[in-house]
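User: I want to check something. If I give you two sequences, will you return the structure for each one separately, not as a complex?

Assistant: Yes, each is folded on its own. Here is the first sequence with its structure:
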Amino acid sequence: MIRPPILPILVSLSLALGLAAPRAGLAQTPGAPAGPAIQKGSTVRIEYTVTDEAGKLLDTNKGGQSLQFTHGQQQMIPGVERQLLGMHPGEEKKVVVKPEEGYGAVDPAAQTEVPREAIPPGAQEAGKQLLARTQTGQSRLVKVKEVKEQTVVLDLNHPLAGKTLHFDVKVLEVDPPQPGSGPTEPVRPPAQGR
């Protein structure tokens, strides 16, 4: 009788049971639950902290509600979404996001001039941030760049445009993609002559 080699069986068994060591570059929280890997279409819940290059805290949801998004649906900035692919619940990662994969470079042409009466009197000061509505009704932050005699110049760049961002991310939960919930392929007519 030929005996199968034991090492491949043990490796397969440990992988199946989630006993293998975490992949390089990732930290596994002790006692963290095993779960599915993040893939396109997964519903993901994360905890994060984001700082700028000087270490100044920009945002965090630690101790609050987790951030939920569907991977691959452009609900997360590309630099973070790409780095989360393949991670599992309980894993943590530090991600550095350059402007190109974050909120983009500062566009000097991204400004508009509006009548002064369209801006609340208390906000007519350079540097003030306002919440504006786009033509489609979406909210977005704008910053007062300059106040003129009759108009106000608004900077339309995202407040984090041009900044390199440092994220500390912990994957809390991953729900695998549901069949039929993703984008569908276009329907094409059958090929002629077949």
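And separately, the second sequence with its own structure:
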Amino acid sequence: MKNRVFLKLIIFLVILVPFINSCGPFKPKRVDARNVPPSGDERVKKNIEEGKGFSLQEALTNKKGGVFDFASSNELWRASLDTIDFMPLINANYSGGIIITDWYSEQNSNNESVKISIRFLSNEIRADALDIKVFKKVCPKLNQCVITETGDEIIKELAKNILKKAAVYEKQNQLKRGRKVHGNVSPKKKRN
């Protein structure tokens, strides 16, 4: 009986030793004392700068936050969706900044359909903030379709409509918030 317990203990130690020995990350690192600031406050500051810790005081007093742009507050996004709202969508990914429609065709044209892709390069309302691509699919016979990227006229017209709507939405939002709109201050309601 004693031999069996002793044998189990030896097997356990043989298995345990490699595990304990492999705990290299938990071993303290050798540090040159000349590179460590002598003051505790300076060491804390250095550790925080290196990302090794955090300061509750900074976390509570620092008012920096993330930037949260939501689709309902982005005029360019809303205007784009409103402009192509008659077309079925395959993908509308706000965080990825892209809208892709499904193939759309008018009721009177069975062999032609159009697909639109709008990519947002910026949240600002300007002409170079959108990358619009329009594809046309023509199928003279079943399973013999030809897909081509269309010319600039449709793209220019779409971009113009989107930018106009976005500018209107932006003006409406500024009026709601009581901000200046092109040099004019929106009237504030009088309190009784």
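Because they were folded independently, the notes below concern the second chain alone. Residues 71-179 form a domain with the Alpha-D-Glucose-1,6-Bisphosphate; Chain A, domain 4 fold (CATH 3.30.530). Strands lie at 89-93, 98-101, 112-120, 130-141, 144-149, 180-181, 184-185.
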